[in-house]
Amino acid sequence: MEDKLQFRPLEKDDLEFIYKMRINPNVMDYWFEEPYTTREKLKKSFEEEQDNNSHREFILYNLKETVGYTCLYDIDHRHRNAEFAIMIDPSQQGKGYATEATRLIVEYGFNQLNLKKLYLYVIKNNEKAFHIYRKLGFQTEGELKKHFFVDGKYHDALMMGLLREDYVA
Description:
alpha+beta; diamine N-acetyltransferase activity; Diamine N-acetyltransferase; GNAT_dom
C-alpha cells in the first residue's frame, strides 16, 4: 500500500468519482448491479440517503487521491447487524487497499456503531475477495446457487459473516 488509507463520509463533491465507478461494468459486476446510472439519479439518491439511519457511505482515500468507496447498509439497530460492501477503483487495485479498507470499516461497525455482526455476499470464484474476507475473520455462512449473473453466466455466491467476538484486530 503506497500511503496510509483513511475514510470519511461520502460528500456531494465525491459523486463524480462514484459516477465513474458506477458506469464501469467491471466494477459493477461485483457490486451486483447494472452499470447504469445518470449523474442526476446519483445526486437524487445521495440527497435521499442523507437522513437514512440504516446506511453509512464512505470514501476511501490516501494522501494523494481517492481510491474507493465502501458502505454499511441495511443497518439493523435492533439486531445490531449490517451488510458490508466495497469497491476499489480499478487503477488502485492490487495495492492492499481492499484489505485495509475492510479492516477499517469492520472496526468502525463494531466500535462506533456497536454492531454485533457484519455480513456480505461474494461470488464464490472471486478468490481475491474471498481471501481478504477470510483473513479478517469472515466465515462462510451459506451458499446461494446461481445467484449472480456476471460475464454472461450465473455464479454461485457465498454469504459470509463476522461476529464481533470472532474479530481479531
